Amino acid sequence: MAIERTLSILKPDALEKGAIGKIISRFESNGLKPVAIRLQHLSQREAEGFYAVHKDRPFFKDLVSFMISGPVVLMCLEGENAMQANRDLMGATDPKKAAAGTIRADFARSIDANTVHGSDSVENAKNEIAYFFRATELFAYDYKK
Ligand code: IDP
Ligand code: MG
Questions:
Q1: Ligand 1 in reach of 106 Cβ (< 6 A)
Q2: pTM for the full predicted model
Q3: Ligand 1, atom 24, residue with closest C-alpha
Q4: Cα–Cα distance list, 140 to 39, 76, 79, 136 (Å)
């Protein structure tokens, strides 16, 4: 299987709860290595741009206001099958429907405050990583060592 990269965002509720360490630990113990990490308070423009695909959905306004309600942790994760591996660890969008043991089942309180974002395709992952990180900010692990 190929080494892939995906974008993860720990949403404001993750920081509010003091849960970022526990969540990052789940990534690390499941073969997902951070290759870039930054804590940032997104502006409205940045959040709207990131979620532009959802701009016509009824929840768009609430989603953007939640995402700028506090700082987030932006991360590029790398590992085998990273996009799907991250989605599996996250669980379903609605925490009520998320499988037991997933991040959203364990930490999220609602579909709005659902703790984590993860890219949903390898193609989208490339664009989402480039939206927040310059190529020079991504650490290149040497897997031959
Ligand atoms: P995902 O985060 O699991 O990929 P998306 O469908 O891409 O889910 O939606 C982006 C975000 O928008 C979700 O994480 C969630 O916070 C919010 N969202 C999605 N659907 C709803 C909804 O029906 N009501 C309220 N918020 C929603
Ligand atoms: Mg999505």
A1: no
A2: 0.98
A3: 59
A4: 20, 11, 12, 9
